[in-house]
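Reopening this one. Same input as before:
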Amino acid sequence: MTQNSLLNAWIEEIQSLCTPDNIVIWDGKKTSYDALVNDCVESKKAIRLNERLRPNSILFRSHPSDVARVEKRTFISTTLEKDAGPTNNWIPPKKLKPIMTKLLKNCMTGRTMYVIPFSMGPTGHQFSKLGVEITDSPYVVLNMHIMTRTGLDVLEYINKTEDFVKCLHSVGYPLKKGQVDPAWPCAPMEEKYISHFPEENMIWSYGSGYGGNALLGKKCFALRIASNQAKNEGWLAEHMLILKLTDPKGEVKYITGAFPSACGKTNLAMINPSLPGWIAETCGDDIAWLRIKNDGRLYAINPESGFFGVTSGTSQKSNPVALATVKSDTIFTNAALTDDQDVWWEDLTDEVPDHLIDWHGNDWYKGKTDFRPDHANARFTSPLTNCPILAKEYEEPVPISAILFGGRRPTTIPLITQSFNFLHGIFIGSIMGSQVTAATLDEKIGKVRRDPFAMLPFIGYNIGDYVNHWVDMYKKSSNDLLPKIFFVNWFRKDENNKYMWPGFGENSRILKWVIERTKNYANHKITPIGYVPDINRLDLKGLDISRDTLNALFEVNHEEWVDEIKSIEEYYKIYEDHLPAVLKTQLGYTEDRFHM
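Same output, byte for byte:
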């Protein structure tokens, strides 16, 4: 099959276990991609979109039970529970493997087994990692073709090494002879398992065909497994965008940003600056692998080759670059379908079409149907090269000058704060999160749901060790060479529950201040939680915003922060008796500054 005896043995093992009808080694060629698209369209698993409006693009509709990552069915399987830590679902391998082996037995009967050699990061790059995904899902093959570097070029590198991540995936829906295959096969929720074996650099996923559950190069490999590899090898795998900024004088700086879901990460990665003369370009919108090089600086590279973005809320106002990115060669999942065979989603246009085909495949009429026609987690998969503002350096490590952490907080957290130093920045990363709204079930409204480093669902090992690994990275360099760390909050609201900051392209005004601070410009004020902008030194030309609003945006309210510190103390109980020393120390400093 291949020239790698280890890989051949694994393929034969999975073939014997899963009993597919056919095996295909994915060659990564465009002709193979186009042929598989045609197969999906002809078998009615996918819909080809209007070639004039949306060239080379298709729409898939998933099963209603299979629409997002399933955290409750996602496991870190290590020999010892302490290695998975308190924030992961843990099952030991000796218990989990027999359960999954029983499910995997004959699971690919009636199907084709695809073997996808892939590289996370540019093929052959010293920062990159290799993987092989075995799957019975054409949808996964097509998405992995876009999201990773795949094919025979990658296989040449895999043929020379035993160092590749084994990724096994099945939709969990074997076919009996003559049985009709549904448009979106999957297993019941209680049979879904997305399992990570970091001690073996291995992933087994069963029962789901959607997104991060099935595209195993994404969150499973690039964050959960890679974060563990990074700990062992001395680097970081982070849930971060990478953005290139060029000022009017031509000076270039690179920043990363880590935000939880629905906090504007993709919008910031594709920002269209409102400030004259400023240019923004993206290197990536979701994942960054970071290493300290010999010069002592932290460098980042995006290991992906595509965007897997949420369609909902994406519009000409919020993200014109994203709309340009999905104009062609894109896979859509769970968007609505228009009468002229194009896609539509909530907020795409000011006017809602009178008639659509919803994501279930049923007729939908404006004003007559009481549910939205697209799914809230509908997605687009597009190549990075579709992006009109893709930085030319997108396949090279770039030196990072600033790291942004953020969340969705209507009160308490200022629009922008700079940490006092890198260790204080680690503390800021550990406390970030978003306030629970009525849209979130089973959580108290108003409570802050913490998402440290935007990595809570994605850390592949013990969260305490993860925080300490950030400290280890700090010790490898110096505070002067490492990026400055900032806390952003685009979502602060006034007494009328209205957003105070306009956001979108206007965020470039805040990014300008960030860049100035990386050069130690004295345009700041000192508060108990860090440095905030001196309002008189912010570039606000042409922005209609009152002085009172600006003061409120940067307010550090003593009473609110006393409550915030109590909330942090309560949250830190997840570490039990293993609270990292850096967090205990920095929390103590913060309490002292508020005279607690």
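So the earlier flakiness isn't reproducible anymore. For the record, The chain has a mean pLDDT of 96.
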